[in-house]
């Protein structure tokens, strides 16, 4: 039983050790941002990867988490930890609401993807217009370093906080996938009608999945806020974050627990790498990034993790004696 | 021109730093070698939604660095040359933050730029962790200088100043013409600057005797502005005040021309096109007599004229962002010179005590209070016969306002 | 709150703008109907086409309307190649991967355009840019009127191509039953590429009609692509007449909500209608297929 958690422990331990090996804040800042994206992508992966319900609108959950947390802190002076908890809860609630409406209407595939996109856009336009979100001026969290305020002087401390959230998310996802609910979710992905015929309450399973998914992505939104201390409608509800979490989960390996984390590191590592060879012409680096993205999909259709597993099993098959390292 | 000369890529920068290390290792004074170059971080969004503005800003900084170096570098530091470490903020705060971290690790002495308020807020905060001086170029949100950061200096005017100056100038121009304009329609983009301006205008304009007939928010990007013009036609205001970005202003001006909507005046505030030479050149008729209250250079300064010529010779366009960033880098060079050191605390101190007057902006000598340059203000401009002229205040003007534009 | 003539004129404006939306949506719905993919690169292809028009006008002095046949052919070829040699092979026929590949493609196209043309917003000037047709108090832009007519004609041509020609029949066969089509000897990969090429060709037409009234910069396509998605769903995914009707409908909705709630908040109108249609009638307002 514990064996399934070993890879999680190993990779989390490895990342936790980074601040001891690397002092460069450039690197730590990079890892923090990647972890925030990875957390959001874990949320996407549970619904999209494991459950097969592709969402283009996870910004709705990311933004709700971030905005709720920010509004409670800025307008009502609430403690940052409590505000974050509230952000996660409301993110989950919004997810449940969107799920309830769309799954009840029987939307799947592209239809579900597009309706989530539309929900996120409605929230973005609203957040840009109503006064409580600060409208277009956005919300600025006061710089006030302290553990109680969820603000840290060192990048390393924030890295461990974000990593703690990611680790919790990984354990949660692992546990879900090994549970009855996880099996039902996979059954829904593979064949919804067959699952229903076998007595799975499809609607309930999907709703559970989108709620947990929303909570995870909302947590990422809260972390984003605590790290950058500034929000506006395009940051919180913009299409960028929906795409960011979807890409990370898919590139890493859809439906695999460690997929989002691997994907986020791969994508952002790639982005940073191409940036260094860009020279003075704007856009060349991103064009190279896009090209590599296409190549990754072409040569690793099951994601980076899928490719690694395939290579590993092939090697293991080639040398059956020493295969189990 | 400078773009090819300036080492922009990281590899080039790395090479530069090894060279710098080599010079440091050798006792430079004995060998009479040049002092190690001083690295200046230039942060601009040159990809993504703000790429157009970022490109202008980068050009301005490049010209300034080239000029400072051509004039003998930083004199108090033995004529040390400035060297640009460029960072692409990719039009979002995360990338801006990451670039500031990289610049810090590469040992820049200060960071200049940011353009958008969101980028400036995040990037200056990151710089504050290292006491790294940060000079904001545009970022109009007044939150930027209200956080008590000791490293953040805004050379240009903030939002409140821009709004106030815009109304005051408008009221005076209107008064001088015998108060032909009484009714106003506001057209604003729905982001930070447009919505913010509209809010202030709704409070302030009635006090100045204007009646606001309607306030129309438009999204960026807008696909079509026919309806806005339709409403303008039916409301028939004396004055239209557009605070919109480039693309939307182009659409608005063209549609107004086509639909024959001819108010007595069009008075932009921080408008993205009315003070852009490209707009004036491509739509001479639609742009004619449009006024704009915006960041601008001081046309009477020889350095400003030389900068315009240099930009034209390099095949670059021209908007306010270019001279503003040119001046921001100059401000830093002056502070470095007075500090006589690249020590951050000293540079921050020198910036805070700055009384620099050799910039190309219509500001007067710099004076920072809580990081905001007090003399900074926008000016009122008007497109006249295909050229953008300063019409108000008189101290900086090179033309008289033509108002009302149409009787 | 507004007089009748203004509401009428706003409606007319909406129809004219909606026709352009419909043109952009035509290619998207066609590709969706046959390949069953959401093409994320659609906006980027539109941007590329608009730059092509800009170049033709600026460097060759060709009128944008004259450029239509040439650019249509060029973009058909580009689209054909993109599907046949990039999207198809790279995605291994998996829907999720197609999504990633088209996303990647859009990043590549947009940023190459940025590298080549830089971020400046560019426009073209034509003699007729400010010409209007006067009907009573109404001043209708000629260029927009041409756009409307062309949208109707192109929809008709595309519809004819799909129903009357052999290629069209093959396309529809592949759309309905891929396996069956390949069994009767239809080259499915070729048909996929042809469909994608047709999608890009309609974008070239849209670009030629848009440039006289709009501007181009490397990100301009994104302004149209979200609204095009909406139209595709409203019209019923894969339906050509649906896309035309959906485009006109969205144009009018946008115009009227814009008139009454402001252009900024008015955008919500589109998405709310979109959500309601999806929740209540997912086959689309005009779609027959479930």
Question: Can you offer a commentary on this structure?
Answer:
The complex is a heterotrimer of chains A (325), B (407) and C (290). Chain A has 325 residues and is an all-alpha fold. Chain A is built from 15 helices and 2 strands. Chain A is globular, with a radius of gyration of 20 Å. With 407 residues, chain B is an alpha/beta fold. In chain B, the strands form 3 sheets. Chain B has a 7-stranded mixed beta sheet, sandwiched between helices. The N and C termini of chain B lie far apart (46 Å). With 290 residues, chain C is mostly helical. Chain C has a domain at 26-219. The model of chain C has no long low-confidence stretch (mean pLDDT 90).
Q: What is the structure about, briefly put?
A:
The complex is a heterotrimer of chains A (325), B (407) and C (290). With 325 residues, chain A is mostly helical. Helices cover 75% and strands 1% of the residues of chain A.
CATH fold naming of the largest domain in chain B? Rossmann fold
**Helical proportion of chain C, percent range:** over 70%
Largest sheet of chain B: 7 strands, mixed
Q: What integer is the average pLDDT of chain C?
A: 90
Major sheet strand order of chain B: 7-6-8-9-10-13-14
State the shape of chain C.
globular
Radius of gyration of chain B: 22 Å
Helix content of chain B: 40-55%
Q: Order of strands side by side in the largest beta sheet of chain C?
A: 1-2
Secondary-structure element order of chain B, as H and E? HHHEHEHEHEEHEHEHEHEHHEHHHEEEE
The amount of beta strand of chain C, in percent, is under 5%
Number of domains of chain B: 2
Give the beta-strand count of chain B.
14
Count helical runs of chain C. 11
What is the CATH top level name of the largest domain in chain B? Alpha Beta
Q: What is the assembly state of the chains in this entry?
A: heterotrimer
Question: Which SSEs are present, and which pair or pack?
Answer:
The complex is a heterotrimer of chains A (325), B (407) and C (290).
Chain A: H1 6-16, H2 18-21, H3 25-50, H4 59-76, H5 80-104, H6 109-129, E1 139-140, H7 155-178, H8 180-190, H9 192-197, H10 202-228, E2 230-231, H11 233-237, H12 239-253, H13 259-276, H14 284-299, H15 303-318
Antiparallel strand pairs in A: 1-2
Helix pairs in contact in A: 1-7, 3-7, 3-10, 3-12, 3-13, 4-5, 4-6, 4-10, 5-10, 7-8, 7-10, 8-10, 12-13, 12-15, 13-14
Chain B: H1 2-5, H2 10-25, H3 28-31, E1 38-44, H4 51-70, E2 82-88, H5 93-105, E3 110-113, H6 117-128, E4 134-136, E5 152-154, H7 159-176, E6 183-189, H8 192-207, E7 211-218, H9 226-235, E8 239-243, H10 246-258, E9 265-269, H11 277-282, H12 284-287, E10 291-294, H13 302-313, H14 321-339, H15 344-352, E11 368-369, E12 372-373, E13 379-384, E14 387-392
Parallel strand pairs in B: 1-2, 1-3, 3-4, 4-5, 6-7, 6-8, 8-9, 9-10
Antiparallel strand pairs in B: 10-13, 11-12, 13-14
Chain C: H1 4-35, H2 42-60, H3 68-91, H4 95-117, E1 132-135, E2 138-141, H5 142-164, H6 166-176, H7 178-183, H8 188-210, H9 221-234, H10 240-261, H11 263-280
Antiparallel strand pairs in C: 1-2
């Amino acid at each position: 039983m514990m064996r399934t958690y070993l890879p999680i422990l190993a990779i989390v331990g490895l990342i936790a050790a980074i601040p001891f090996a690397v002092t460069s804040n450039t690197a730590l800042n990079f890892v923090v941002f990647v972890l925030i994206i990875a957390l959001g992508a874990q949320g996407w992966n549970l619904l999209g990867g494991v459950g097969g319900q592709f969402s283009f609108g996870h910004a709705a959950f990311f933004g709700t988490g971030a905005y709720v947390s920010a509004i409670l802190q800025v307008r009502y002076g609430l403690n940052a930890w409590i505000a974050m908890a509230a952000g996660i809860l409301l993110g989950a609630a919004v997810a449940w609401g969107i799920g309830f409406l769309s799954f009840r209407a029987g939307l799947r595939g592209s239809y579900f993807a597009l309706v989530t996109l539309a929900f996120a856009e409605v929230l973005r336009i609203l957040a840009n217009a109503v006064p409580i979100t600060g409208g277009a001026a956005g919300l600025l969290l006061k710089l006030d370093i302290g553990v109680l305020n969820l603000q840290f002087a060192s990048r390393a401390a924030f890295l461990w906080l974000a990593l703690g959230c990611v680790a919790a998310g990984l354990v949660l996802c692992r546990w879900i996938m090994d549970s009855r609910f996880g099996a039902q979710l996979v059954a829904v992905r593979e064949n919804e009608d067959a699952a229903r015929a076998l007595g799975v309450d499809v609607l309930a399973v999907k709703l559970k999945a989108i709620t947990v998914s929303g909570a995870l992505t909302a947590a990422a939104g809260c972390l984003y806020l605590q790290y950058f201390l500034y929000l506006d409608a395009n940051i919180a509800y913009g299409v960028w974050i929906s795409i960011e979490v979807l890409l990370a989960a898919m590139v890493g390996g859809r439906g695999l627990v460690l997929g989002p984390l691997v994907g986020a590191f791969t994508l952002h590592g790639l982005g940073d790498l191409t940036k260094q060879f860009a020279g003075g012409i704007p856009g060349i680096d991103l064009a190279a990034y896009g090209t590599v993205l296409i190549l990754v999909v072409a040569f690793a259709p099951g994601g980076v993790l899928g490719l690694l597993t395939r290579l590993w099993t092939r090697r293991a098959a080639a040398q059956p004696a020493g295969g189990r390292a | 021109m400078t773009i090819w000369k300036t080492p922009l890529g990281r590899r080039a920068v790395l090479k530069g730093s090894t060279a710098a290390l080599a010079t440091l290792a050798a006792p430079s004074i004995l060998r009479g070698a040049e002092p190690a170059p001083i690295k200046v971080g230039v942060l601009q969004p040159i990809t993504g939604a703000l790429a157009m503005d970022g490109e202008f800003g980068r050009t301005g900084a490049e010209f300034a660095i080239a000029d400072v170096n051509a004039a003998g570098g930083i004199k108090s530091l033995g004529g040390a040359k400035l060297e640009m470490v460029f960072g692409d903020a990719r039009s979002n705060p995360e990338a801006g933050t990451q670039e500031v971290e990289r610049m810090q690790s590469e040992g820049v002495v200060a960071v200049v730029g940011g353009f958008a308020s969101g980028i400036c807020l995040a990037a200056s905060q990151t710089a504050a962790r290292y006491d790294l001086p940060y000079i904001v170029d545009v970022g109009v949100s007044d939150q930027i200088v209200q956080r008590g950061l000791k490293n953040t200096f805004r050379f240009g005017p903030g939002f409140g100043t821009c709004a106030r100056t815009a109304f005051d100038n408008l009221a005076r121009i209107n008064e001088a013409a015998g108060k032909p304009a009484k009714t106003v329609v506001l057209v604003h983009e729905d982001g930070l600057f447009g919505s913010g301006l509209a809010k202030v205008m709704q409070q302030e304009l009635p006090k100045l005797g204007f009646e606001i007939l309607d306030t129309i928010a438009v999204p960026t990007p807008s696909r079509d502005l026919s309806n806005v013009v339709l409403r303008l036609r039916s409301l028939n205001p004396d004055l239209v005040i557009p605070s919109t970005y480039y693309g939307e202003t182009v659409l608005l001006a063209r549609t107004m021309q086509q639909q024959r909507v001819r108010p007595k005046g069009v008075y932009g505030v921080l408008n993205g096109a009315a003070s852009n030479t490209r707009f004036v050149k491509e739509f001479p008729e639609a742009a004619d007599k449009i006024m704009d209250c915006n960041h601008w250079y001081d046309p009477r300064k020889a350095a400003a004229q030389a900068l315009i010529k240099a930009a034209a010779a390099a095949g670059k366009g021209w908007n306010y962002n270019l001279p503003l960033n040119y001046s921001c880098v100059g401000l830093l060079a002056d502070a470095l010179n007075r500090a006589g050191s690249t020590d951050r605390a000293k540079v921050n101190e020198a910036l805070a005590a700055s009384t620099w007057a050799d910039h190309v902006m219509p500001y007067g000598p710099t004076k920072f209070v809580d990081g905001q340059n007090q003399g900074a203000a926008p000016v009122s401009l008007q497109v006249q016969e295909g050229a953008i002229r300063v019409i108000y205040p008189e101290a900086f003007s090179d033309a008289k306002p033509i108002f009302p534009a149409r009787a | 709150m507004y007089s009748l003539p203004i509401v009428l004129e706003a409606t007319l404006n909406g129809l004219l703008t909606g026709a352009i939306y419909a043109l952009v949506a035509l290619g998207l719905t066609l590709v969706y109907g046959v390949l069953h993919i959401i093409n994320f690169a659609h906006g980027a292809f539109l941007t590329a086409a608009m730059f092509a028009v800009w170049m033709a006008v600026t460097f060759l002095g060709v009128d944008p309307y004259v450029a239509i046949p040439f650019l249509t052919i060029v973009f058909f070829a580009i689209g054909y190649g993109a599907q046949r040699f990039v999207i198809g092979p790279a995605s291994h026929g998996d829907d999720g991967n197609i999504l990633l590949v088209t996303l990647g493609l859009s990043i590549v196209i947009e940023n190459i355009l940025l590298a080549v043309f830089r971020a400046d917003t560019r426009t073209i000037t034509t003699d007729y840019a400010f010409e209007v047709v006067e009907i009573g108090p109404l001043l209708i832009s000629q260029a927009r009127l041409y756009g409307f007519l062309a949208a109707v004609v192109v929809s008709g041509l595309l519809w004819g191509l799909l129903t009357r020609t052999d290629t069209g029949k093959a396309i529809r066969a592949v759309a309905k039953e891929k396996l069956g089509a390949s069994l009767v000897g239809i080259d499915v990969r070729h048909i996929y590429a042809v469909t994608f090429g047709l999608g890009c060709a309609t974008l070239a037409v849209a670009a030629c009609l848009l440039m006289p009234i709009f501007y181009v910069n490397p990100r301009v396509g994104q302004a149209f692509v979200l609204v095009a998605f909406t139209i595709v769903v409203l019209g019923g995914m894969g339906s050509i007449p649906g896309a035309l009707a959906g485009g006109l409908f969205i144009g009018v909705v946008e115009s009227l909500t814009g008139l009454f709630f402001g252009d900024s908040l008015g955008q919500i109108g589109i998405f709310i209608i979109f959500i309601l249609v999806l929740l209540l009638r997912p086959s689309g307002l005009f779609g027959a297929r479930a």
